[in-house]
Amino acid sequence: MDEQNKLIEQMLEFGYSKEISLKVIKKCGAKTIDEALNWIELTEENDYQEDIPFGETTVEGGNGGNGSNGSNGSNGSNGSNGGNGSSGGDNDNRCNRNEDASALGGRVSPGGGMTSTGSGEIKAKLTPEEAQKKAIELQKKIREKKLIKEKEEELLRERNRIAMAKEAQKRKEQIEEFERKKYIENFEKEKNEHKKEKEKQLELLRREYEAKFGIAYKSENEKKKNIDDLTENEKREEIAILLNNLKNKQKNKKNELVSSLNILKTYFSNIKNNILEKKFQKIKKENKIFVEKIKIYEEMINILLLVGFQDSGEFYVIKNYPNTYLLASAIKFIDLVIKNVNP
């Protein structure tokens, strides 16, 4: 049973249906795929495609029920005598057998018989060599069809794979963009909440101060001069103070601070080393690196303003010619802070 199942699987690979494979094995008793293919080639196509009994009808004279004892060798028309006839009788028997088979609509077999096609058509039986050749040709055609089909399926799979990869990349980019916007929204929300709390505490402090001393309270920011009113040296000193404060406040987050300071230093170095390149004199506020590394530190935003950047809404830009003195000073102070943080 296992051999039969294996043979059926092989015939399925050649393109035959399971029903036809079972019929072929049942009719010819094939044990190998070559035997099955040879038998199919020797049989009319419609014999196994339609529900018509398989097989060949061979009509031969000279071997009847009682022909072995017949003595009338010259009379082979009734197909019952010829076993012991003369050579002339044998020839007559073969001729008569051929005539009888022709009358039945059969075909002549290699041994002197005729093989019926079932439709009256006379067709010579294939030799084993011819049958093997035809079987090989049939196998070749089936393999070619199978190869073409496999190539088409492989091409389709590749197209589907590329389409799925593009779709996956698109979804990934959409998710990253969503997460980036969400991060910015959360950051802005926290910043606004912190600002409101700070204003609330400042207002309480103002009221308490005025109630205690009877004069108006001025915050540290109000006491400070406007950046535009500071001299170059005052701006330079303010940059140093801001960086020192930043170092002291971020003692427990040294790695994050150093990473952000290096980004800030890169901004300033690009401007200083490419003084005529306008692209280095503009920073987009929504830039991911800027948001994650610079914007989180208020001191760094103030340093940007001190070296010459201005808030234009969507960007921080240097509108006038860059101040190389302040840029060089800021770079020097940043290097000192990084060195102190990582001795």
Automatic annotation (TrEMBL):
Name of this protein: UBA domain-containing protein
Keyword line: Coiled coil
Listed InterPro entries: PUB-like_dom_sf, PUB_domain, UBA
Ranges annotated as biased composition (Gly residues): 61-70, 79-88
Protein's organism: Plasmodium ovale (malaria parasite P. ovale)
Annotated region described as Disordered, given as residue ranges: 44-130
Biased composition (Basic and acidic residues): 91-100
Ranges in a coiled coil: 135-256
Superkingdom assignment: Eukaryota
Domain UBA: 1-43
PROSITE patterns assigned to the protein according to its UniProt record, in alphabetical order: UBA (PS50030)
Pfam families: PUB
